[in-house]
Amino acid sequence: MTGNPPPSPATEAARSEAPRQRLALAAMLFAVSMTFIDQTIVSIAAPDITDELGLSASGMQWVVNAYLLSLAAFFALGGRLSDLFGHRRIMLLGTVVFVVSSVLCGCVPSGGFAQTWLIIFRATQGLGAALMFPAALAVVIAVFPVDRRGRALALFFGLSGALTAVGPLLGGWLTEWTWRAIFWVNVPVAVVAIVLAVLARIPEKRRTGRLDVVGAVLVAAGMALSVLGFQRASAWGWSSVATWACIVGGLVVLAFFYGYERRTRHPLINFDVFRDRAFTVDSLVLFFAMLAFVPVFFFASVYAQVSLSASPNQAALFLLYFFVGFGIASQWGGKILDKRGARPAMKIGCALGAVGFFLWAQKLTDLSMHDQWPYAAMAGAGIGFLLAPASTDAVNRSIDASYGEVTGITQTIRNYAAAIGMAVFGTVLTHVTTDRITTTLQDRGLPTAEAEQTARQVAEAVTGHPDGQGPTGDGPVARALRGAGDAIRMDFAEANQWVFYGMAIALAIAFLCALAHPGTRVTAPPPRQD
């Protein structure tokens, strides 16, 4: 009787590595979950924070934006530091910076210094996230072989992306106790992440080279300045000198950064990676997809609260339709990547997303939350199909296995696109909403000046200037909504249609970019040149 043959050394090695891989993936998921949740959780608690601390509307907006600005400005630096000093070490450092900043945000004292305190430590939160995320993603890439990397990163992006929808739900529940808890909740999550990272015994690898301090300062300044211009465009206006000074000034600094990087011996970003056609296509697909992916959280949530009269928690549940499709499709996308490469998954995702957002836009004026779920799920599925394959394929093509550096590049592209999407779509929503509500109120007999003022108040409430008197409160916006009834809600729904059609166009452009992908697959790590 012949027994089963003994397992090969390669099989035994794979089995011994599997528990460490799962622990490492779990550790990184716990770490990055904090960064995703904090992108949305503060917006829900904004009215309570404003009321208790006596912040101005613009001051609260700075509290929200400080995190996003810092995140975008330091991603490239985080990726480079991860390569130079070790992915695990920088991930742990970023986690500590993030959680200490979170605790200090929750401990903000009352008084005149409160606004400055919150802005400072929200910015250091963003710095911690910028250190943590590229390193965490590089850890996952390093511990999983190429043939299993697609499914691992599909789980990484699927779960971490879905956690963005948890922010509003968790924020609404915690705020009922105290808004400070939205920051303190990061402490136990960080402890779990650190413990799992230690237990996983993640191997530490470093690259030789020096930190490009000048490049780090230039890219941080250029990103922060240009993102600031895009983010504040709705408040300052697109005709404002300040808006264009920030945008153009930031782009000029980034152009100077590019020239400097091409000349320096140890650049922060090796732009030679863009010579790879597939990497460039992956980056373009991510850019246009992110114009829709991050902004949809905000615009769908506000649409639900204004046009559907939903509570913040109900609005968060509305977003779950999107994430059901996203979560399921992200796993399929990872399997397609492992078997056939990134091009088929990106084409399917872009096409499905474009159709989903287009059909979703058409259903917004039905003013029924449940009638929209198939189209919201379709839009989410489109993003889910493309996100992990495009990101993974880009990182797999990194030069000299510089995973941290290339992760910093792709994440910078994603955050930059999200900021542009928020600004452009926010401006569209503001103008269309103001025009339509002004007409509605004039038709009901209000004087032109009063109609325009009320319309502007509604527009201000939905473009991110919380004053504690938003669409579900007792302020002028809420009174206008109650007074005009369904007419204003329909006006706002029609204005949102323009935004969602814009998202469909962004995905259609991403589809055209995906067609240019050469279709080649990465089946082994790129050669290392030390």
Counting DSSP E segments of at least 2 residues, the number of strands comes to 0
Overall pLDDT, averaged? Answer: 80
Helix content: over 70%
Instruction: Specify the CATH architecture of the domain at 15-208.
Output: Up-down Bundle
Q: Uncertain spans, ≥5 residues at pLDDT below 50?
A: 8-16, 463-472, 526-530
The secondary structure category is mainly alpha
Could you explain the architecture of this structure?
The protein has 530 residues and is mainly α. Among the domains are: 15-208, Growth Hormone, Chain: A; 212-263; 435-493, no CATH class. It is 78% helix and 0% strand. The protein contains 20 helices and no strands. The protein has helices at 9-37, 41-53, 57-85, 87-106, 114-143, 146-175, 181-184, 186-199, 213-231, 233-236, 241-263, 277-293, 295-307, 312-340, 342-363, 373-396, 403-443, 448-462, 476-484, 486-514. Helix 3 (57-85) packs antiparallel against helix 9 (213-231), helix 15 runs antiparallel to helix 16 (373-396) and helix 19 crosses helix 20. The termini are far apart.
Jot down its keywords:
globular, 78% helix, 0% strand, 530 residues, mainly alpha, disordered C terminus, Growth Hormone, Chain: A, 20 helices
Tell me the layout of helices and strands.
Blueprint: H1 9-37, H2 41-53, H3 57-85, H4 87-106, H5 114-143, H6 146-175, H7 181-184, H8 186-199, H9 213-231, H10 233-236, H11 241-263, H12 277-293, H13 295-307, H14 312-340, H15 342-363, H16 373-396, H17 403-443, H18 448-462, H19 476-484, H20 486-514
Helix pairs in contact: 1-5, 1-6, 1-8, 2-6, 3-4, 3-5, 3-9, 3-17, 4-5, 4-8, 5-17, 6-14, 6-16, 9-11, 9-17, 12-16, 12-17, 12-20, 13-14, 13-20, 14-15, 14-16, 15-16, 15-20, 16-17, 17-18, 17-20, 19-20
